[in-house]
Amino acid sequence: MNRKVLVTILSLYSLFINAQSDSTKSWLELEAVYSALPWFNAHGGLETGFVYMDNADVTAKINFDQLLNLKDNFSLFVYGLGNHGDRATDLMGDFQVASNIEAVKAWRVFELWIQNNFLDDRLSVLVGLYDLNSEFDVLRPGTLFINSSFGIGAEYAQSGLNGPSIFPISSLGIRMATFIGDRTRVRLAILDAVSGDPENLKSNEIHLSRKEGALISGEVSIYTDASFSENNLNIERSYVTRRRKVGREHEVYKNDKVNIGGWYYTSEFEAINDQSSSHGNYGVYIGAQKYMPIGEKGDFASLFGRYGVASSRFNRFGSALSGGVVVSNPITTMDDNFGLAFSSGINGAEFQEIQGSSETTETVIEFTYSLPLASWFLLQPDVQYVINPSTQQELMNPLSFAMLVQISFKY
User: Which positions make up the signal peptide (predicted)?
Assistant: First the structure.
């Protein structure tokens, strides 16, 4: 064997062994999560009945800083997403989408990006296919719930020709993040405004054009609790999937914070009331989370609330309000979590004028209980009640019951 080739192989092997010996962070992180969600609409909506949905998340992350002994964090992330089953919305008739794994049947590459951190992890740049909702408009207590509006605000999720760059279709872009001082994190993302192909929901085609424009999203997070320290300053987009729940084996940061964010599409959109095209499709939001310790065993209760507005000229919901409470270990000592929350989407004046209904607000109330029976197995019974589904007077308020079952593998 050529001596240079042998030296190269031995060098790479040495790097591999050194990276593997790092007890705090591996050079390779793998995870697979299977989520099954049987759903029964017991009353109201479009019709009563049963549907089954499932979702597979397969992720891989290569930490080149560990593999190659680099000073700065540098990583590659790949996320494969598969969806199957029917839609709870077809039973309930709601607009906010009661199931956050509901999507068209398809397999796709959901995310594919590289990230490099600078200045001792205080500045981060990420480029590629990117799930905006993995970092923007996230309140940790809200991630416990199954309704989509607790993952991202209803007025934000409705925007764009094919939604913003969120589940289940992402778009190409760049995200920059930094800390200002010790308690203020700033994020800015510039993304292709059209995720995939609006005419083919199974496609995650990338097509950049001036006509389609860009989605510009910014957010400032202000951490207010005294326990926040420099240990929290590392800026690293977590590879944990968006639909993983509070109370699992991975760490959940219990930091009080306030989010202030906004978004703007550079392209023109058709107005709801007269179909004329113009610029000005934007929105702003504010959200907060508060953690309160209970006892001396690390248990907690958390509160969260959020309010956002969107241009009612181009969007159905002119505003949305949500909030809730989560209590850890209410029944067992197995990191179980109880949650109660609501989300209200309020029609804008233009849409309301066209619809002509006296109902202006759709409100969902969700009660959920997350019980991890093992580090790899989770059961989560869930109840949702929707008041004024899609603000249509002829629909009775639906009452649904579901059972989330999650099986995970992590390396």
Answer: 1-19
Q: Would you tell me how many other CB atoms lie within 10 Å of the CB of residue 165?
A: 28
Q: How far apart are CA 185 and CA 219, in angstroms?
A: 8
**How many percent of the chain have pLDDT more than 90?**
68
**Could you give the 3-state DSSP secondary structure of residue 100?**
coil
State the DSSP string of 22-89.
-SS--SEEEEEEEEEEEEEEEEEES--EEEEEEEEEEEEEEEHHHHTT-SS-EEEEEEEEEEEE--TH
Of 405, 383, 363, 397, give the one whose Cα is nearest residue 145.
383
The 8-class DSSP code of residue 197 comes to B
Count the Cβ atoms, other than its own, within 10 Å of residue 199.
8
CA distance 307 to 323: 9
307: tokens are 């309010």
- Which tens digit of pLDDT belongs to each residue from 114-157? 999 988 888 999 999 999 999 999 999 999 999 999 999 999 99
Query: Does domain 24-410 correspond to CATH entry 1.25.40.10?
Result: no
Q: Domain segments of the chain: what residues?
A: 24-410
- The greatest distance separating any two alpha carbons of the chain, rounded to the nearest whole angstrom, comes to 81
Rounded Cα–Cα distance for residues 402 and 58 (Å): 24
Q: To 10 degrees, the CA torsion angle through 304, 310, 314, 316?
A: 40
The rounded distance, in Å, linking the Cα atoms of 354 and 362 is: 16
Output Rg (C-alpha) for the chain, integer angstroms: 22
The residues that bridge with 60 in the sheet, in sequence order, are 30, 78
Within 322-375, residue ranges assigned H as helices are: 349-355
Whole-number Å distance between alpha carbons of 313 and 327: 39
Please state the length of the chain.
Answer: 411
- Integer angstrom CA distances of residue 268 from 67, 118, 168, 280, 319: 45, 36, 24, 8, 21
| Contacts of residue 229, Cβ cutoff 8 Å, sequence gap at least 6 | none
